[in-house]
Structures are given as C-alpha cells and as structure tokens.
Amino acid sequence: MSDVELYLWFVVGIVFSVIVPIVAKWLRAAQKKALPSASFLQQVWGIAGPYVKIAVASLIVGFVLLAMYRSGGGKAIEAWYQAFLYGYAWDSTLQKITL
C-alpha cells in the first residue's frame, strides 16, 4: 500500500473511533428524551463538540501513526482493514487517555 492509501485508511479508522462514542451517547440521550428547549443542532453539538475537536487532533495522530509505522519496519500492511484497525485502535486509546 502507498503512504497515501495507508494514511487515508488510518484516518477512516480514526473517524470511526470518533463516531462510535458520539452515536452511543446520542442514542442514550434519545432514550432519555432530550430537553425540548434545546434545538436539534445544540443537542448534536453538545454531544459531538468534544469529539469533533479530538477528530481534528486525530488527523495529526494519523500522520504520526504513519511515520511510526514506516519507521518501525514491521510487517507490511497488506489490506485496507489492517490500516483501518491501526487507526481505530490508536485513536480509541488516545480518547481513553484524554477524555
């Protein structure tokens, strides 16, 4: 895989790592019937805001992950799902440390 392909799949994994907790919180909030006084966009931003900020930082992490992977000389990533899981795992770990 080229570096561009690897980076893109790392970022896709990172994005999914960011989206999964947002969707989980959103579903829990929907079950509790969120306050009607807040607009839909306010509710979404209230849940997603912190994760969006992390997603921006995660794009940088994707680049760092690519550099670390290339410098390590480990086993070659041969499929998109391997790169996806690298990105997902790294960002999921980053979220657990920072949130």
What does this entry show, briefly?
With 99 residues, this protein is mostly helical.
3D architecture notes:
Helices cover 82% and strands 0% of the residues. It is built from three helices and no strands.
- The residue-averaged pLDDT reads 79
The number of E-state strands comes to 0
From the helix content, strand content and strand pairing, which structural class follows?
Answer: mainly alpha
Rg, Cα atoms, Å: 16 Å
Number of helices: 3
**What distance separates the N and C termini?**
32 Å
Helical content stands at over 70%
Share of β-strand residues: under 5%
The total tally of domains equals 1
- SSE pattern: HHH
Main sheet: strands, sense, barrel? none
Secondary structure layout:
Elements: H1 3-31, H2 40-72, H3 80-98
Helix pairs in contact: 1-2, 1-3, 2-3
State the main characteristics.
single chain; 99 residues; elongated
